Amino acid sequence: MPHGLGHFLGLDVHDVSDVGPVPDRLQLGHVITVEPGVYFMPLLLQRAFSNPQQVSLLDKPAVEALVDMGGVRIEDNVLITADGHFNLTMAAGMLKEAHEIEAYMAEHNVQDM
Predict the structure, then answer these.
(1) Average pLDDT, stretch 29-47?
(2) Are 70 and 37 in contact (CB under 8 A)?
(3) pTM (two decimals)
């Protein structure tokens, strides 16, 4: 469902450039997010389930089971370096795998969101 793949990251949290959320060419020192995600939006899902070209791509029971969750996004914050990039999220030791997040939630008695 609708979601960009990333944007600049800065003092205003969602900084944008002159050309939009992320320019065509990244430059040394840029910090961007890389955030693939999926959002379950009932109105758009209803349209997709009614569309013969889209409905075959969806597992309706699985989607319906997850729709109340709202969605999920896994985000990395990345610094563009002279050699390529440096993943700030991974360097900070953030949990990324589902089993790691679920174990943390269980250990800290965090309820499902």
Answers:
(1) 88
(2) no
(3) 0.65
